[in-house]
Amino acid sequence: MPIIQTSYRTSHIWKDAHFSTIYPSTLRKVTGIEYDRERLELWDGDFLDLDWSKAGKPTKKVKTKKKAVAAVEEQRNIQPSKSLAILSHGFLGNTTRPYLLGGVKAFNSIGWDVLAWNHRGLSGEKNRLERMTIHGGSDELEAVVNHALVKGIYEEIVLVGYSKGANIALKYAGEKGEGISDKIKKVVAISCPTDLQGSIVAMGKAGFYAERFKVKLLKFLKNRWELIDSQIFKEFEKYKYLEDFTNNYIAPLHGMKDAEEYYEQCAAMPYVDKIRVPSFILNAKNDPVLSESCAMLDLAKHSDYIFSEYPNYGGHCGFYLSNSEGLYYGDKRMLEFVEGKIVV
């Protein structure tokens, strides 16, 4: 049964849920990533900004002592990769977040191209429409996936998501079920709130992380004030909790009655049992943002497709690991799963 025995071990301050969450989010440095940006036009007149990180594989090294110039040119000849990882970031993040850059570096290190997409309004440029990328935004991920498929380059694609992006990836795979493209081989979900209602309860209505997300959301909305009705915008200052924004603004904006309906419709949980590609969930028991139900342990015990690892420590999108490569446990575990090296 696909419950994965964890190999994650840590000590001292890294056992603290808050330190192991906040340090990687604010102080982790990932270097060596260069993006090429592409704009994807959407069906509703808006757009998504896609950031590509290519990692071609060198051809055979020159072994003979031919002319120096010819040898240099031969070594510079790069074959395009036929493997692609599509990475989805978390709530109010973007493609420059340390956890996501770690994933980019990990996949590039094994010769995979990476397509990391920015949710609406988070690429550094304001979007055209008021609509946001919600927790259930599988339609936007589908647009990104289809864009990659149309290129006709890639023989294998893996979907990777972090937090909100992980929920989107699992929901997309579940909605597609047996109809998912045969190019999509696996899904990886790190620190995934599959049970959104459970996650809200775990954070607490007035908890530290709920407050932190509320402040970030208010800042985001203020930065796009011209897209929002002035009367609605004035109400934002009255909202005391994160849930107030979801209940009174975000849910109605996207055709849902209230926060309860938002959590119900956007959560990946109802769709996970319909997934028909191997999918890996890595959540930590001490994650201050997620409930135990988010790890989908009961489903994984009886599933041929859902693999769940639930270490005691790691925080939220943390999983710190000291090594010379600059990769954390989540980065390494993700590659092991993709390459079929994890033993159940």
Automatic annotation (TrEMBL):
InterPro entries, sorted: AB_hydrolase_1, AB_hydrolase_4_sf, AB_hydrolase_fold, ABHD4
Record bears the keyword Hydrolase: yes
Q: Which SUPFAM superfamilies match?
A: alpha/beta-Hydrolases
Domain of life of the native organism: Bacteria
| One Pfam family linked to the record | Abhydrolase_1
Q: Where is the AB hydrolase-1 domain?
A: 86-302
Q: What does the similarity note say?
A: Belongs to the AB hydrolase superfamily. AB hydrolase 4 family.
Protein name stated in the entry: Alpha/beta fold hydrolase
